[in-house]
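Dear colleague,

Following up on Tuesday's group meeting, I ran the structure prediction for the two-component complex that the binding team flagged. I've pasted the input sequences exactly as they went in, so you can double-check that nothing got truncated or mislabelled along the way. The structure tokens for the whole assembly follow below. Feel free to forward this to whoever is handling the docking comparison.

Inputs:
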Amino acid sequence: MTLYVYKTGTSVPVLTMENVVSYTDSRAETADGGVYGPFAEDVELSSLPDCSETLRADWRRDHPSAEDRVKALEQEMAAIGAAIERGMML
Amino acid sequence: MTQAQFNAMLQVAIAQEIAGGKYFQLSHNLDDLDAVLGNIDGFSDVKDKVEATGVTSRAITLEAADLQAYIDALPRLRTESLIIRVNAGHVPKTLRLENFYGPGFLWIIGQGADSGSVLDDGIVISNCSIAIRIISFDIRGYSVGTGVSVSNSKSVSLENLVIDGSNFADGAYNGISADISCMVAASNCTISHFTRAVYTGAVVRLINCGGSDNASGIAVEGGGVVLLSGSTPELMGGAVNKKWGGIIIDKTGMPV
């Protein structure tokens, strides 16, 4: 596939990566063994030349890091704890 | 026969032998041959250079427009270290440093980008085994797509250069390109508005360099190595780095 690298908030690619066989939010690999990465913080990926997709953000959403999962768990536990406390007070 | 007559005869004899490619047969005694060669114009200079235990140095100042012609006229064998200071002005064509070798070094020092020292069409350094330093220039281009192109050159130092692709009339591809067995060190250089800030299949050190508005930052290929040091950013102002075999190492020693 072809991926377009563009600066967030713009719709013009600064770079075109051809023959990409896989990608994450931080790197992309091409069929000939090339590796693009890391990406700058202020860029996004799109498979469409109009830069209408946000593939890096989508990837992060679909692949939360262990740190993010721990944070989410902590928040969930805190919410449960608060709910229990409220229940006990009632 | 006087000593002078004897020497003159020997000079004629050795000149004939050299012309016939048989000078080594003139004398079986190297000391005799050495004495004879020393009496022939030019040979004593060569002997002195071959047997020198140090490298002399010399500094000159040139107008920018005269730089390439001066370099073209230099002997490729550098037995002295030469420092060329260049007055502010434009070097109108691609500055080419090619095929220099020997124990000497070559420094070319401009007045700085802010002071109007401009290389109008980039630099090409190829097949040089001497140490070369290019200091304090604004690099532009109208016929080349690369600011500084280095190939098969063992020791190239680039210092205080402003390499801005927006000043390139016909596309700006590489800010610095180093390929085919090179060692390049760039310090305090800024590279902006290029497709690739730095490309190498050799070894490049970037020390306190900066970059902005480049499509790609650093591209390595074929086992190229880029070492980042000081304040040099990992991406050199690009959206991403590219690796087709090779490594980029940050200032902590970790792969980028």
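The two ends of chain B are 78 Å apart (CA to CA).

Cheers,
M.
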